[in-house]
Amino acid sequence: MDNLKLDRSVQRITILKKDPESGKVRPAAVYRAKGRKKKTPKALRPIEKFLRRLGKAQARAASVYNMRHDRSAKKKKNGALRDLITNVSKARKQAWKSLRD
């Protein structure tokens, strides 16, 4: 079983064996694929997860701000400057929401 050439998609091979005493069928794993080795140390994974979420939140804030900026600029003259504080605060609110979830 050590020299099997299997496709990468094969996770495991299981054979069903009948128990001679009870007559019940029990699974017996013949081959089980090794999991991929994690490249990040276990101690740093929470930090990496937080940084990933923070980056997504910043991207969300930037996209919300750009959408509101364009809408304000289209609606009225100097609208983007007039609505700057409102647009930034609403974008920041969306970022906090996405960071919290």
Count of DSSP strands: 2
Secondary structure category: alpha+beta
Q: Strand percentage, roughly? A: 5-15%
Strand order of the largest sheet: 1-2
Task: Give start-end ranges of low-pLDDT stretches.
Answer: none
Helical fraction equals 40-55%
Mean pLDDT: 88
Please summarize the sheet with the most strands. 2 strands, antiparallel
Gap between N and C termini, in Å?
45 Å
Structure, described:
This protein is rod-shaped. The chain is α+β, with helices and mostly antiparallel strands. Strand 1 (12-18) and strand 2 (25-32) form a beta hairpin. It has a two-stranded antiparallel sheet with strand order 1-2. The protein has 3 helices and 2 strands, in the order ββααα.
Give short descriptive properties of this protein.
15% strand; single chain; alpha+beta; 101 residues; rod-shaped; 3 helices
Topology:
Blueprint (H helix, E strand, L loop, with lengths): L11 E7 L6 E8 L12 H31 L3 H4 L1 H17 L1
Antiparallel strand pairs: 1-2
Helix pairs in contact: 1-3
